[in-house]
UniProtKB/TrEMBL annotation:
The organism's taxonomic lineage, starting at the top: Bacteria, Pseudomonadati, Pseudomonadota, Gammaproteobacteria, Alteromonadales
Entries under PROSITE patterns matching the protein: TAT
InterPro entries xref list: Alkaline_phosphatase_core_sf (IPR017850), DUF1501 (IPR010869), TAT_signal (IPR006311)
Protein name: DUF1501 domain-containing protein
Residue stretches spanning the membrane: none
Domain of life assignment: Bacteria
PANTHER family linked to this entry: BLL7424 PROTEIN, DUF1501 DOMAIN-CONTAINING PROTEIN
Alphabetized SUPFAM superfamilies for the sequence: Alkaline phosphatase-like (SSF53649)
Pfam families recorded: DUF1501
Amino acid sequence: MKTNNPRREFIKSVAKGLAGTAIGSSLLPLLANAQSTNGYKALVCINLQGGNDAFNCFVPMSKSAYNSYAAIRQELAVPHEHLLTLNSKGQQAYGVNNLLGETQSLFNRGKLAIVSNVGNLHEPINKQAFFEKTALPPAHLFSHHDQTLYAHTLNQGELSSGWAGRVAELMAHNNINQHLAMNISLSGDNYLQRGVDTLPYTVRSSGVNMIEQLSETDPASFSASRAKLYRQFLSSERVHLLHRYYSQLQMDAWGTAQYVADILDSQILPALPLFATTHTSSFVQSLAMIVRLISARDAFEVKRQVFYVNLGGFDTHRDQLAQHAPLMMQLDQGLGLFYQALEALGLENNVTAFTMSEFGRTLTRNGDGTDHGWGSHHMVLGGAVDGQQIYGQLPTLEIDSDDDLGRGRIIPTTSFEQYSATLCRWFGIANQDLHQLLPNLRNFNLSDLGFLN
């Protein structure tokens, strides 16, 4: 005797409704284009919330440059004997903190690149132009909220959308499945992934956030009967426009959650270290969920995805040595396990991960910590990365130098627009669309930093 599964029937009904919408609307030519798209690509944004102190991650190793760095940083300086050498191609000698062993290995293998002195810039600016006010800096420098908003939106200060949200809306035609958002967050709502008309889809590191009280796993359970009643309630006729909109929103969210959960549940996890249940870091667990979602790309019928994961705690005003060390270790472990999994699954060339942070830290210390800075170094990881190189202009690590705005706040020489534009080109954004996507990009001569093949 055939058993009726209300959960699966509900998902099928949602899918039929979506298909009808697509066929009967302007989505049809978009789906045709999506089917002809060649290959899958994903961007993974790792947001280092609070302002990462990159000057204690990447350190000059030559005697004179290191001595200058150590004299400024004093107790915060990484001992020279603790630095791990970066075998960069014919560039200034740099090393990484010895807590970043996986990062060193990935760099020396050519899978990771460092982009130096990146920051929020409306236009190129130097010390003289800043103080003479002949160039325009971003508003409210050194403010966590404002600089996060600026880095994530890159749209001249308007809050309406983030640059990854605009990318998704511009490239929506690449995905056959128009119901599942191209942007997926493992860390809740964020400015980066908000579109003009769309929002990111959010999952937890453990998977889809289902409502246990409406579980239909056991059709004979009380929660299943309650789910049936709730679905009938949402499906009932309503006159008021807002009532209809809310009901449809609930139905769509419920259907999507069940759809994503079913696909994830059907996956067979390979025996990879990233998927070990012993990991206690929520950051590593989030990266594992990202790999699971990427692995299910064919089932989801998607060819472009943008993922976002937040690693917080980098606002190290005090007790920095104790606070920063475990954060570096989490980041380093996550990057190593993540890339190892991608290689094992043959996806390393399809996925590019990159770090972001609202600003860097001061080169000077404030006692036992650092304060809000400006420019910082960032990492890009993936098989498509032209690694083992440091891109951009390395700053002079000296107080009162031309690179120092004051108090060790280093003026960035590479903008987040240039950084993002390079990522967007690899992702498939056409050159003619870049200036529409990133309005401030036209203020910079170089729009491709060259770190992606």
